[in-house]
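Task card 7
Instruction: Convert sequence to structure tokens.
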Amino acid sequence: MNVGYSFPWHNQNSFQLLIDSGKFYPRMLAAIEQAEHFILVEQYLVSSGQVLDKFILALTKAAQHGIQVFILFDDYGTRAIKQSDLNKLKQKNMYFVSYNPFKWQKLYSSLRRNHRKLLLIDNHTAYVGGAGLSDEYLPSEKTLDETLNWHDIMLEIQGQVVIDWYTSFSQIWQACSATTLPKPHDKNWGPELTQAGRVLLARGPGRNSIIKSALRNIKRSSERVWVATPYFLTTRKLRHALSNAAKRGVDVRLLLPGPISDHPWISHAGRRYYRRLLHNGVKIYEYQPRFIHAKIILADNWISIGSSNLDRWNQFWNLDANQAVRDKDLVKQTCDLFETDFSQSKLLSYSLWKHRPWLQRFSEWWASYIVRMIQWLVYLASRIRK
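Output:
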């Protein structure tokens, strides 16, 4: 099976799981303050507010101290940024690029979005995961909006794979900007970094090593397959792989949004897959306290964490990036996170699901119908374009 990996496995790395904004935002801001040469920022979801204010302040201070700051924001994902905030990102030593500006007259090409999330400091530290720069991740006492305080994770990374993250950023930057990135400085990593990792990329139709690698590891699993995703509109291949793993005795669990979601209709549409999965032995947990935005695939001792959702849109159109890791310590951290989240989730049963109310069945039907219509229109647009 030719997966088409862009990068090899590297054995000298360190990975630390940072859970929720109270952990990852302070670490990211502190890393910016410690930068010595350059900072790379790549983001999809960015909106004006408290979080962006803090990052703008940290980045502009770094630029004022002579640090080169390169910012690559997706045009569609950052439509909630005020122009005054964008202007602050275009100062001396700061280089800003908006990826693929959305144009209705070029709708087909505008569908391709950069969904990656990366903060890279010099050539030694990177932060990768599912979190954007937005107040949705902050707990708030001033609002009753339960969709706020999204549950998400980031990985703090040091080691050899940081250069691969630099390369993935560089490939997109060079296609969008004439400004040259600084070359990463050589660094010798010590023997204390012992965790194995590989950077996985999704680069558009037919070039998704994230999903292909997930399929390979799910099919090889013998103990557990635990998956967390905010949107479960995945391919038939992946659903079959999950079902087949459960049938051969693997502990297969899905951690999905419950009553709180930023796009409830997508959650409704995804529930049309539940019945067959439950019948085949897959355990489905719906997270209750808040919206779960984390993207994790755990298959035995293999983990994939990053920006890639398990929905067809992400898998076909978006530029995404995940960090794959093989390490027992990170497996332990990830399992502990899953167990905590499972305890705050509703476990669905096949017998009860078969007898769910007709109104719920109808909401699933119309939501899935809308999804199919969108997919058909996109397919039609692609055929017309050819």
